Amino acid sequence: MTVSGTDRSPGAGVAWPGVSVVMPVRNDAENLVQAVASVLAQDYPGRFDVFVAVGPSVDGTEEVAARLACDDPRVHMVANPAGLTAAGLNAAVAGSAGEIVARVDGHAALPPGYLERAVTVLLETGAVNVGGVQHAEGVTPFEKAVAAAMTSRFGVGDARFHYGGAPGPVDTVYLGVFHRDALDNVGGFDETLVRNQDYELNWRLRDAGGIVWFDPKLRVDYRPRARLGALARQYFEYGQWKREMLRRHPRSLRWRQLVPPAALLANGVGLVLGATSSRRLLLIPTAYAVATVVSSAIASRGDLRLARRLPLVFATMHHAWGIGFLVGPRASRLPHAALKNVTMSVKP
Q: At what angle do helices 283-300 and 259-276 cross, to 10 degrees?
């Protein structure tokens, strides 16, 4: 997949700005080589480098990152002892010097032309952050089912970064390519959030008057979770930290964020009361099951292997997210800084 559509010039007489790619990783040894290689393969006309922030890992991630740094002077390893994504991002940003900061995840692979396209759009639109589509693409049958669910409106709602749409201002984007000054001005990523750091950061950027721009031509491959338990944990944490995000920024609420907890409560009430008092209430979980099966047939596009797995994947994503949202993060699980309402700055 190649990103095209640039004229290889940020403007007459203007040099291409330096780009620092920041990549937080933890237990990502399996995917790290590919992720870093996709960055180093970029044909960006200006200077760029990669800062890999490594959290405590048990699978050899630190050794892989150290080897990559030794093999290419553009790769730098940064310590992230806290192990949290936001802390790693801030550490990587603080250790870098590019005028533009591009976030990349250890599970992602940049397509050719990504950095050039993103910087061009960033400069042309006047946005403070530019991003595109999280192109979920699985390898195993289960991963492929999760990828199909992640690109379905029934699975993830109406956020454009999941499946594409028209270019323009949006609430949030996948990953992101930022003006460093804009990141500095809002204090960087909030290290008190375990999940939803991107959405929360984009909220503050927009609240400060900036524009977050979606470009559908920026499509980044993403490999989904490989096991049902890992998927459930991922979406449970999404729900938990969305609850915390909304507690801090109530005006950021969108209707799609209330659908999973509403579905969870409706299905639970329907099952319990339908079995004990009024059988008509069983129509609620039955309707959800039918909608899930129909949506699975649509999302599978005729692939029976996907169609068989998708109902369980959809139900796991919805209900794990809903449970997490209703439970919220316990105070004992909040990072220590959260108890003091401290937001870390990326300024060195």
A: 130
